[in-house]
Recover the amino acids of this structure.
């Protein structure tokens, strides 16, 4: 795009957006109120001055714009990732300090607030403006965020008419928001999505599949879905968190005590024959059936401690522990996300009454046969998960809520008309790599249908090192202080983010993506980044 | 004007030269001087004891070929990566071979779980990377829709199980039969083969890979000893488990209680001896093979390969694994030659489909390659180990049989093995 020279077209779009939004939301304020103040920082001995503008849009979304005094005409619009939409008291592990819903805007990505500031200043120093919206609501708030970003662009252009180009980037759900915005409105010149989330349906199916199998195997008293209205539902939700943490901790202790044959938690009601199978095999199975990566920040699904267990640990134990480490996030996402989403959509958003979990195993049943304790054990566990087993009742969704989650969340469609970059971890447990494969396929369909331009998508991947699990002298795995690159839902380094930012700026200016060779050259110092158009991670199950 | 014409002619000639360049110029891992091949296989870890010699044997054979002019002037370079026989690492290393090392083709990958994961992860089908002579008998790799570029080399486990079934029924009528097999696609392929061979089992024990321990092996052997008479025990697993069970039988003084049959994957005598199994225990063990015994120096392939091994792989003893590695390397060279001077990935695959069944090979059974089959050997002979670890034909007469992976008959082979090319250097085209 096409900086907004065509003001009439933009005005029409904005009016449409406002009318659409007005129909479903009550504005918190009649107009945006922007306040600007001068600010500066020192960089390499030189002062970089800028205006810091803050305000609240008519929907109640807080926003921030930073405009350098030596502006080059391009603004970076950043969308933050998902945040909880409900306060939470102190909960060990999940929210040790409690949580109050955070509505603050962020103007740049980064691992920490300091890193975000570093990225923002690096861009300001180069003459780019940066901006971001806190969005008027949290949780899965793609529709609200898309509108908030649109308002922010309008406000920024109103304040600074010399904005010629706008490039958009976002992290996780923010990547999804960024992509949806770029497809829906012709106001973005190029986009970069950092470990971008999948569709609402696919993300929640992923999390709920794992949660349902977890509760079915380990504690059937976990409610998981269909929370009651009001405070009663909130109490059910908090109770679930407690139960999941208890079961999770019990399994964790069992594996630590005996990784070869860890016992099932006492809360499990599966038959004794199944409980004779090491519980790690059950964890691995439900991870594979939900789509959880087997590589995690600690476990590479290959290495073992020196000694007689070296091969068998890598073969049979490490993949299960990788799933287990990753699964905690999937469980947290399921619990927190489900509650938010049920409130948002007014009912149960998940339905597995027709899911054939056994059919999902596929080649993984062979690849991970050792970790699953063999085909006989696997068949037994799959039989227990079968929909005909009365001890494993399925979840029935609420039709309106299912429709809400599938069709009313402003999902991106892959109708890409501007240069679009994605960068994702191959072993991301929150937004698994399969979501990007789906995005690629959506784009390919749009190209074929003539609704997207070919050559507008560049997928960059960040993989873990070949092996990385470390063991102490007693043979115990050592959890790294920082997540291993390529694993976890961990933000990229500042160096990598600035490379992406540079590509994004170039694409925004020229309307063209960097070539694969140029992109590879840009990351040549990072051995874990690769670009391979043939790389095809497995689709998530809801996307097949 | 004249000058213009000359320039035009030069440009035109240049265009012709460019046009005439073979498509190979764009093929990864290929230059006018070199063909880069890759292998992902265990060099460390439990499986390395048996199979760790394969890349060294292949490299030795390629060095021999390189020293004698290479393949149409190109030297073969083999890039070796250690996957420890672990699926996730195999996927990583295979991807590294393709993306980082830029190999032209993969050769002699080992294992079913490892390679099925690696094949998908490295996008071998999409990239059309030739995947030659994979060391597995899993019949699933015969699915050409899923594995369009893969050629396996071993007979399928189902074929082996069918042939053992017939052998047991013919040679040990009336003896109870117990099967001990790995509880995965390898073992299940075998179990299905025993069922197809209509073998009645008095006992069937399936165990997950990596789960067998000394204690479990002893409990297993103790349990099997309750079967009356002298039961036939078929061990259809990896060599480390065969060794555990043999040693358990030794400690329980039960080695002579059973007639032991070790499947081809778990019956390598050198590895069993290296793992501490007593020579007296392996003496008399029945095993299946499709190769000549590596200690049979009267065999022309064994003799030539042993000579190459001594020269290019010094310090490594010649055994069945080295024989297998050299044989796969010789098949590779013949495939490259058959693809012609204008080598391409697609041409290499076609060359095996069209000519692979005629390649010279050490095996005593035929190769089965064609446009409709990417499965290699299709038969076995049954033998008996002596205390030195030599496999001799059972009953003193070599009897090679062939079959398929499903319900086809088991028939005596009429296959006549081709002589080894002079000095072990193929000249086929």
């Amino acid at each position: 795009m096409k900086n907004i020279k065509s003001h009439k077209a933009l005005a029409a779009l904005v009016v449409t957006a406002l009318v659409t939004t007005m129909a479903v939301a009550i504005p918190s304020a009649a107009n945006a109120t922007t306040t600007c103040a001068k600010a500066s920082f020192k960089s390499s001995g030189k002062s970089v001055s800028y205006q810091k503008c803050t305000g609240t849009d008519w929907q109640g979304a807080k926003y921030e714009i930073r405009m350098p005094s030596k502006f080059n005409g391009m603004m970076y619009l950043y969308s933050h990732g998902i945040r909880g939409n409900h306060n939470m008291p102190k909960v060990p592990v999940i929210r040790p300090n409690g949580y109050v819903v955070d509505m603050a805007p962020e103007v740049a990505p980064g691992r920490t607030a300091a890193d975000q500031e570093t990225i923002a200043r690096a861009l300001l120093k180069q003459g780019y403006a940066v901006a971001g919206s806190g969005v008027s609501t949290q949780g899965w708030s793609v529709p609200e965020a898309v509108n908030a970003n649109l308002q922010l662009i309008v406000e920024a252009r109103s304040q600074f008419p010399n904005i010629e180009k706008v490039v958009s980037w976002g992290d996780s759900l923010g990547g999804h928001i960024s992509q949806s915005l770029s497809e829906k409105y012709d106001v973005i010149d190029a986009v970069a999505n950092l470990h971008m989330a999948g569709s609402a349906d696919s993300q929640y199916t992923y999390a709920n599949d794992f949660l349902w199998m977890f509760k079915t195997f380990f504690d059937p008293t976990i409610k998981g879905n269909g929370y009651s209205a009001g405070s009663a539902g909130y109490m059910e939700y908090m109770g679930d968190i407690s139960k999941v943490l208890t079961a999770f901790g019990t399994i964790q202790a069992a594996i630590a005590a005996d990784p070869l044959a860890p016992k099932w938690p006492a809360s499990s009601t599966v038959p004794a024959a199944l409980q004779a199978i090491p519980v790690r095999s059950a964890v691995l199975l439900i991870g594979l059936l939900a789509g959880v990566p087997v590589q995690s920040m600690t476990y590479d699904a290959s290495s073992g401690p020196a000694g007689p267990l070296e091969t068998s640990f890598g073969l049979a134990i490490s993949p299960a522990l990788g799933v287990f480490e990753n699964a905690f996030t999937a469980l947290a996402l399921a619990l927190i996300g489900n509650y938010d989403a049920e409130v948002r959509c007014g009912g149960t958003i998940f339905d597995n009454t027709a899911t054939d979990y056994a059919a999902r195993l596929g080649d993984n049943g062979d690849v991970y046969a050792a970790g699953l304790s063999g085909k006989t054990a696997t068949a037994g566990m799959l039989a227990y998960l079968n929909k005909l087993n009365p001890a494993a009742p399925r979840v029935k969704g609420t039709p309106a809520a299912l429709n809400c989650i599938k069709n009313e969340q402003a999902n991106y469609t892959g109708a890409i008309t501007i240069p679009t970059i994605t960068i994702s971890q191959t072993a991301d447990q929150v937004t698994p790599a399969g979501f990007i494969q789906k995005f690629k396929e959506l784009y390919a369909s749009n190209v074929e249908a003539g609704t997207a331009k070919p050559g507008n998508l560049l997928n960059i991947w960040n993989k873990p090192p070949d092996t990385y699990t470390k063991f102490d002298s007693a043979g115990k795995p050592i959890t790294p202080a920082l997540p291993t690159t390529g694993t976890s839902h961990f933000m990229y380094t500042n160096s990598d983010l600035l490379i992406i930012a540079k590509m994004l700026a170039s694409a925004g200016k020229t309307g063209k993506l960097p070539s694969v060779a140029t992109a590879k050259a840009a990351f040549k110092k990072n051995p874990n980044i690769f670009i391979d158009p043939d790389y095809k991670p497995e689709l998530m199950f809801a996307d097949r | 004007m004249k000058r213009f014409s000359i320039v035009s002619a030069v440009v035109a000639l240049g265009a012709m030269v460019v046009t005439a360049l073979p498509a190979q110029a764009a093929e990864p891992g290929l230059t006018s001087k070199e063909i880069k091949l890759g292998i992902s296989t265990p060099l460390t870890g439990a499986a390395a004891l048996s199979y760790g010699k394969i890349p060294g044997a292949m490299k030795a054979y390629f060095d021999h070929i390189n020293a004698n002019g290479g393949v149409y002037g190109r030297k073969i370079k083999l890039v070796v990566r250690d996957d420890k026989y672990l699926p996730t690492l195999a996927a990583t290393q295979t991807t590294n071979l393709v993306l980082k090392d830029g190999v032209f083709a993969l050769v002699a990958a080992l294992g079913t779980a490892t390679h099925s994961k690696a094949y998908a992860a490295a996008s071998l089908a999409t990239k059309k990377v030739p995947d030659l002579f994979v060391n597995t008998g899993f019949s699933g790799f015969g699915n050409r829709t899923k594995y369009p570029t893969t050629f396996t080399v071993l007979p399928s486990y189902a074929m082996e199980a069918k042939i053992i079934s017939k052998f047991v029924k013919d040679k040990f009528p009336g003896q109870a039969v117990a099967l001990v097999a790995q509880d995965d696609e390898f073992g299940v392929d075998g179990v299905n083969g025993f069922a197809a061979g209509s073998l009645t089992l008095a006992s069937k024990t399936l165990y997950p890979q990596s789960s067998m321990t000394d204690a479990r092996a002893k409990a297993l052997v103790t349990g099997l000893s309750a079967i009356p008479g002298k039961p036939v025990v078929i061990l259809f697993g990896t060599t480390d488990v065969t060794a555990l069970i043999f040693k358990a039988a030794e400690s329980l003084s039960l080695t002579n209680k059973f007639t032991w049959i070790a499947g081809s994957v778990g019956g390598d005598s050198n590895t069993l001896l290296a793992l501490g199994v007593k020579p007296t225990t392996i003496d008399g063990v029945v095993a299946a093979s499709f190769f000549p015994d590596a200690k049979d120096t009267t065999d022309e392939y064994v003799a030539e390969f042993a000579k190459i091994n001594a020269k290019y792989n010094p310090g490594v003893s010649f055994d069945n694994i080295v024989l297998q590695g050299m044989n796969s390397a010789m098949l590779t060279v013949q495939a490259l030659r058959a693809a012609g001077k204008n080598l391409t990935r697609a041409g290499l695959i076609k060359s095996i489909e069209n000519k692979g069944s005629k390649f010279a090979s050490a095996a005593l059974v035929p190769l089965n390659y064609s446009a409709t089959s990417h499965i290699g050997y299709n038969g076995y002979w049954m033998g008996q180990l002596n205390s030195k670890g030599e496999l001799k034909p059972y009953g003193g007469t070599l009897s090679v049989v062939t079959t398929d992976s499903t319900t086809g008959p088991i028939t005596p082979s009429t296959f006549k093995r081709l002589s080894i090319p002079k000095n072990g250097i193929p000249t086929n085209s």
User: Anything to note?
Assistant: The radius of gyration of chain A is 24 Å. The interface with chain B takes residues 294-295, 300-302, 310-312, 314-316, 319, 363, 366-370, 372-377, 466-467, 530, 532, 534-536, 538 of chain A (CB under 8 Å).
